[in-house]
Write the structure tokens for this entry.
Amino acid sequence: MKESGYFLDLLKLDIEKYPVIAVVGGGGKTSLIYRLNEELQALGKKVIISTTTHMAFDPMLPRIGSDELDKLPQMLENHGFAAVADIEEASRKMCSIEAGKLQKLASLCDVMLIEADGAKHKPLKVPADWEPVIPEFADIVVSVIGLDCLGKPICETSHRAEYTSAFLKKNLDAPVTAEDIEKIATSVHGLYKNVDHKIYRVYLNKADVLSDPAPAEHIVEDLAKQGTVAAYGSLREAEKL
């Protein structure tokens, strides 16, 4: 039996006060969103899942497109949650609908979960000029970083590695360190970009690949000293809860 509020508690997400959550960063965003939805369903919440970029689509997921938004209230009543997105023909991924329409739909649900970034399944990224696409009406931003990048070359672990290389002022073959993760997580040119006045959280995923949790603990402690709430864990391991 899965614990109903594991990730909600771990990331200190006050959904009653801050119900619109945007997720950015490296690989694991979609998995985190689906896991949060499971926890919210267990709490009896009505949830809208959407994206401002692209997001993997599960055909079993109840979904409505931008041309059928009038069906959303009934879908939420029937299923408790729904994806609101169009389908991109070439990639068959979910893609964004107009931001103004999405904002108006927030009043129909208890919580809205938005994937606001892309990383091609890489654990690490530094945003390009046009990224991330965080909606102005989002209350919380959660950055995801995969700990499987630690000790491995930037060129192997980072989406658009040239941006990460330039940001860190390291060559593409340089290994990623805990200090690099902290810098990316907290910089306004890194994953803190476009967060502005919003609540900010950092989730370090794939802690199960570490033989020793000390590096993850060290990063979380350092981020806390800088005023950033962070947590580490494993979405894969959490599936067993």
Summary: The longest helix spans residues 29-42. The longest strand covers residues 140-146.
